[in-house]
Specification:
Elements: H1 13-21, H2 24-34, H3 40-47, H4 51-63, E1 67-71, E2 79-83, H5 85-88, H6 91-104
Antiparallel strand pairs: 1-2
Amino acid sequence: MPRHTSINEETCPIARSLDVIGDRWSLLILRDVFDGIHRFSDIQRNLGVARSILSRRLSDLVEHDILATQAASDGTTYQEYVLTAKGESFFPVMVGLQQWGERHLFARGERPSRLIDKATGKPLPFMSPQGDDGRELSLKDTEVRKPRTLNG
């Protein structure tokens, strides 16, 4: 079996990202925190995840500065998990996952949850990559350029 490359050795930003937040539980934890669920017990209840798994994933997200802990906002002795600036910058990824799921994973007539613009009350427009000139880019309009290695 091939050795798993260390996050620091990996040149692919997708692989590095997956090392940090690429499992189901981490993504669902982030979804819950984005949705306003901040306490360990509330996240656990909402996800139905084992305490040990939730504890490990939360620790990893805090270690990678995606979440931070703070005293509970209601003044109790509990702590809450909140997004850091790095965590908040993950928002477009979550929107992309949600919109992809809305488009491709629901049967006709089945109603998914929707992300709504609070100012207009309307669903967010579908996200798509854009060039500097504002034109929409597709896969065929892009390419990956890998860094050169010392030997190559």
